[in-house]
Amino acid sequence: MSTQFNTYWEDFKTGERDNIGSVVVDKHEVIQFASRYDPQPFHVDEAAAERSIYGGLIASGWHTCAMVMRLMCDSYLLDSASLGSPGIENVRWLRPVRPGDTLTAYRTIEETRVSASRPDRGIVRSLWEVENQKDELVLTMSGIQFFLRRNPET
Amino acid sequence: MSTQFNTYWEDFKTGERDNIGSVVVDKHEVIQFASRYDPQPFHVDEAAAERSIYGGLIASGWHTCAMVMRLMCDSYLLDSASLGSPGIENVRWLRPVRPGDTLTAYRTIEETRVSASRPDRGIVRSLWEVENQKDELVLTMSGIQFFLRRNPET
């Protein structure tokens, strides 16, 4: 039985829903991220953002995804036997994310199974739902992550 | 006929495939991005990455998506009547992206149609394919973007 990490494939249970943490959206960081990766006016220019359909500065959708990735890392990935992810489905930017918002992410385990080709590891499919401080959904996405099994011999 | 921007909904033609630009992956930036958003050892720690299943430092998948977003911005979005995107489908991180790699992105227009509810705008569905300098696919994803029409009265 391996105990190098806190979390292995066996620790994910289908149907479980957990709060994986919160982050406050920082205006300087919104502008900094978008200036490098997504310099559309409503992400980088406060005056232009005021005049846009969004009525003010909003975070790049990719920045929101990245902030949620950090919550995943801190809540379970960094102390896990993670082997990475092949991809993500159904990324939905449902509402604008604004500086000062507090985002809280919830993870629901949708499916777990042992890899057919590599029985030392398992597959975990999760749904991530991200709400702001008004309990409004701002982002949903789902995806697969691979983890080593704690007890591959069982 | 509006000419405020270079690109409106009418300028996207189903079936067209275009090179939307290239970017060289910078090691310092790989570590910087991942340190903030995805601090898994194989993204931030060269020695740990050497010992990992990846055999060396690799970019966060979200960083790769963000780099492609910048190519979209520079090649067409910033001088367009873009109204943003509701989401992305089928993000596939197919191969590791490493410092020093040159990534080139291709966009194929899969579908265009006028919005049924808001006839001043149109919907463009695209597939993005990203290759490295060995012509290996490293990332694919698809998604919808909204654009104002140049001639909404037609």
Brief rundown of the structure:
Helices cover about 25% and strands about 35% of the residues of chain A. With about 150 residues, the first copy, chain A, is an alpha+beta fold.
* Strand coverage percent of chain A: 25-35%
Biggest interface: A-B, 33 and 34 residues
CATH architecture of the domain at 9-25 and 69-148 in chain A: Roll
User: How many E strands of chain A?
Assistant: 5
Roughly how many Å is the radius of gyration of chain A?
A: 18 Å
CATH class assignment of the domain at 9-25 and 69-148 in chain A: Alpha Beta
The order of strands across the largest sheet of chain A is: 1-3-4-5-2
Which stretches of chain A of 5+ consecutive residues score pLDDT under 50?
A: none
Overall 3D geometry of chain A? elongated
What is the fold named in CATH at topology level of the domain at 9-25 and 69-148 in chain A? Thiol Ester Dehydrase, Chain A
Tell me the name of the CATH homologous superfamily of the domain at 9-25 and 69-148 in chain A: Hotdog Thioesterase
List the secondary-structure elements of chain A in sequence, H or E. Answer: EHHHHEEEE
Q: State the secondary-structure class of chain A.
A: alpha+beta
Oligomer: homodimer
Largest sheet of chain A: 5 strands, antiparallel
- Please tell me the overall pLDDT of chain A: 96
Cα separation of the termini of chain A: 10 Å
The residue fraction in helices of chain A comes out at: 10-25%
Total helical segments of chain A = 4
